[in-house]
Amino acid sequence: MTDEQRPDPDALLARVQADEAKARRGKLKIFFGASAGVGKTFAMLASARAAVLQGRPVLVGVVETHGRSETEAMARDLPRLPPKEIPYRGRVLKEFDLDAALAWEREHPDGVLLLDELAHSNVPGDAGQGPGQACRHPKRWQDVQELLDAGVDVWTTVNVQHLESLNDIVSGITGVRVWETVPDRIFDEADEVVVVDLPPDELLLRLRQGKVYLPRPNDDRAERAAANFFRKGNLLALRELALRRTADRVDEEMQAYRRRSAVQAVWPNRESLLACVGPGEHGEKVVRSCARLAAQLDVPWHAVHVQTPSTRSMRDAERQQMLHVLKLAAELGATVATLSAPETAAALARYAREHNLSRLVLGRRERHWRWPPGRRALADRLVALADDLDVLQVALPAATRGPAEPEPAPTRSDGWRGYVAAPIACALTTGVALPLAGVLELSNIVMLFLLAVVGVALAFGRGPAVLAAFLGVAAFDFFFVPPQLTFAVADVQYLLTFAVMLAVGLVIGQLTAGLKGQAAAATERERRVRSLYEMSRDLGSALLVEQVAEIGARFLAAEFGARFALHVAGLDERLRELPGATAKADPAVAQWAYDHGQPAGRGTDTLPASSCLMLPLKAPMRLRGVLAVEPTESTTSATSFASTASTYSTAPAGAVPWSPEDRQLLDTCASLLANSLERIHYIEVAQASTLQIESERLRNSLLSAISHDLRTPLASLVGLADALRLTSPRLSPQQAEFAGAMKDSALRMNTLVNNLLDMARLEAGAVQINRQWQPLEEVVGAALAANAPALAGRPVQVQLPDDLPLLHLDAVLIDRVLANLLENAAKFTPPGTPIFVRASARSDSVDLIVEDRGPGLPPGKEELLFEKFERGRKESATPGVGLGLAICRAIAQAHGGTIRAENVARSGGESGARFVLTLPRGTPPSDTGSDEVATAGAATAAT
Predict the structure, then answer these.
(1) Looking at beta carbons, which pairs linking 96-102 to residues 24 or more positions away fall under 8 Å?
(2) Global confidence as pTM
(3) pLDDT above 80 for 889
(4) Hey, what's the torsion of the CAs at 594, 596, 599, 601, to 10 degrees?
(5) Is the pLDDT of residue 194 over 80?
(6) What's the rounded mean pLDDT across residues 209-235?
(7) Is the dihedral of CA 104, 109, 111, 115 positive or negative?
(8) What digits encode the pLDDT tens for the residues 14-23?
(9) CB neighbourhood size of 369 (10 A)
(10) Strands, DSSP E only, in 188-331?
(11) Of 63, 300, 596, 818, which residue has the fewest beta carbons closer than 10 angstroms?
């Protein structure tokens, strides 16, 4: 077994550990379909009945039959898990009992649990319920995850529109947005996926026959579904999505099997292309041709450049051309890679087999001579190495098929040293061997010259080694082969010795130089991996964004010798540069890269004149900033190539300074920085949230305690004031006035205490909303009647249109909102000021407006007034603690609405305050006079 075929021990250990963890975990089987009605639940139940016949325990956790008789018949004889009853908004709903399922698994360790509708959202339950009374997870797929971790085998169903990555695509096709989704990793990690498929015509026939949605009186769901979602074009598109997604999963499983089994041969189960990019102008033609072919076949493709010892001495122009071609391939959708190997054909064949790429695309070159003589073309070598690969050759233009220009001398200033060192090494070897000529055999002296060739190749590379091989043969012939001091030979057999010596010297020189390059490349890769590890380790312990910037600057300076600047986004989506930046980054370019989430600046197609490369810091949740990298004079144009070949010069100013490996390393660095910034952000958010939660909890506890403790003495004060006025002898007018003032003050204090208590209950979620369909006129009339004493002396003008719809609301709570708004209007306006109450209906909501002609609201504080304990004027004789508007907003949000405040300025110098309460407009139940519809309307109101 060769080194390339020998499996990696670390990979084997990781595979064994993964297999052990998978063996302890339960098995997940998904019945996957393109849409509702294709028969997923029926297929799952049929498989379950077959498992029962085989003696395997089966338990139905949740199965949604939707009233279909054939599905109910399949589930009738299967044992069912009793559902958990959860109170929610005045109703008792039934959900899956996770704890009971775990208990059943302990008694039946080899059983199967059926859990329909994987994307289902669990009922949250009412606030204040204990852990055992509410659902533990908000989503059913999270319940499945816990079951699998406990070793339970689960069978479930899901539609293609519920996959997270395809949700937006499905909504764009069907026009229907599905809100319940499942992460794709759940689907990808499933042990088995069964595709349940049905042609669109048969599914439409089932829909018309009432087998998808059962016909019910006054229920037109089937007609609406057929007119909107269940159209043949939609079903065809969904079917294609489901089959393609399943094919992608099967392809990933096949690739994983090939890696586990070390399969070398290419399996042409799926078309795929590999573009071979070499030095020269022809690479762009190869890439474009491969991209067109991939687009026509709709298949993935790769673009690879192989860096061999013979191509490491490329000129700067060729190197820049090759980098440009790789960049073009990436823009055209290819997976780009650069390989380091001693031979091009073997590296391409190995890469194609690792990635199961069946077709190789390369350029066809016509040469009348080859070096070394007899060397076959790349296509012929590929065919000889891998007869399971298809090789496609692209015809190149005549300009690129001509003979290559002669390669200039190396551009390194010290390139001549190797060619000077080769004669010196041969001379030293001759000087050492001459005194030993009478002691050593000529074969041993040959070994000394070969050793000199190895030393020259190791120190100076391939060219000096070739020169040393020729000079060694000449020196051996001249000084050691009789007749000595002449190039003539007495024995013809020495000619064979010279030939073998020269061939061995050339081969050893080539191999030594190639191995040196590969060793240098491996050392460089190991160094970069170690640097990334050290960077990630340091970032893991960073607690400040300044520390993150310092770590990033240190890494980039060590790896690229580049300058660095880190721009972090603030709450206003504007960037700020962190201290310690060494690069002169253009803020406008950085802001563009952040706004568009794309790289910009040097080496890109956007603002390439910038001196810095701008990389957006993409974290899992959002963009966190921009990394600016500015190359210096010491930054080579291809660091990864320079690490393996010492003949590259510094990139000229304005050149693209990043090779694909460099860009990959920079992208990895940017990703690590972004994740660290997001981690620090959420640490700060968690700390602030914890502090706020504790503060709110303490304040609510204090408010609740004060409210309860004050209500009893306040009620006593009101009762005592009334009792004083009824005592005999009767109170004097002054004493009666005192008793009345005491009662009014106690009532005002009681109102404030009620506000405190209501605010605490609203924030704790303890208020139950009793929604019913009611006319808005009755709510407004009740509020005006209840607040008539406070509105005395102020004309109230009510303007309510006759066509206002019924609203689904809690009349008591909305009455409280109107009471607070009317009370505020009475408090903060002069006596006699009119108050206006208006309403207007829109397509999706209804606005209720309370407006006055008073002094208005403090400018700039319109939104702040809805905060708790916030008053318009800090120093004011008007009673109140600033809770009324906060209660109004809490009630509006509980109804799914909003409330806002604004100042009103009119002609003539009039001003005032306006409060707009917006409530959602639902669909009231229709009243046809039948008992059935009335019952349905009552049930709807109860929700």
Answers:
(1) 96/61, 96/62, 96/122, 96/135, 96/140, 96/143, 97/61, 98/135, 98/136, 98/137, 98/143, 98/146, 98/147, 99/132, 101/59, 101/61, 101/147, 101/152, 102/146, 102/147, 102/150, 102/152
(2) 0.44
(3) yes
(4) -80
(5) yes
(6) 66
(7) positive
(8) 666 666 767 7
(9) 6
(10) 192-196, 273-277, 301-307
(11) 596
Evaluate whether 315 touches 645 at the Cβ level (below 8 Å): no
Asked whether the CA dihedral 124, 129, 134, 137 is positive or negative, the reply is positive
Concatenating the DSSP letter of every residue in 283-302 gives: HHHHHHHHHHHHHHHT--EE
Nearest to 57 by CA among 188, 176, 152: 152
Judged on CB neighbours under 10 Å (0-12, 13-18, 19+), 912 is buried
Distance CA 391, CA 386 (A): 10
| pLDDT for 400 | 44
Taking residue 243's Cβ as centre, other Cβ atoms within 10 Å add up to 15
In the predicted model, what is the mean pLDDT of the chain?
Answer: 77
Asked whether the beta carbons of 465 and 510 are under 8 A apart, the reply is: yes
Q: Which residues, including other chains, have CB under 8 Å from residue 661's CB and lie 6 or more apart? A: 338, 639, 640
Helix (H) or strand (E) segment spanning residue 33: strand 28-33
C-beta of residue 577 within 8 angstroms of C-beta of residue 566: yes
Q: Is 517 left (phi over 0), alpha (psi -120 to 50) or beta?
A: alpha
Three-class HEC string of 818-874:
HHHHHHHHHHCCCCCCCEEEEEEECCCEEEEEEEECCCCCCCCCCCHHHCCCCCCCC
Residue 254 identity (one-letter amino acid): M
**Strand, helix or coil for residue 343:** coil
Side chain identity at 910, as an amino acid letter?
E
Number of neighbours of residue 460 by Cβ within 10 angstroms: 23
459-494 pLDDT per residue, tens:
777 678 788 878 877 887 778 777 777 777 766 676
Element (H, E) at 472: helix 462-479
Alpha-carbon span 69 to 66, nearest angstrom: 9
Mapping DSSP onto H, E and C, the string for 764-805 reads HCCCCCCCEEECHHHHHHHHHHHCCCCCCCCCEEEECCCCCC
Measure the CA–CA gap between 627 and 566, rounded to whole angstroms. 5
**Residue 692: enclosing H or E segment and its boundaries?**
helix 660-726
In angstroms, the CA 818 to CA 811 distance is 10
Share of the chain above pLDDT 90, in %: 6
Only one residue has tokens 């770590």, namely: 551
For residue 363, the cross-strand partners are 394
C-alpha dist (Å) from residue 452 to 443, 456, 505, 791: 15, 6, 9, 111
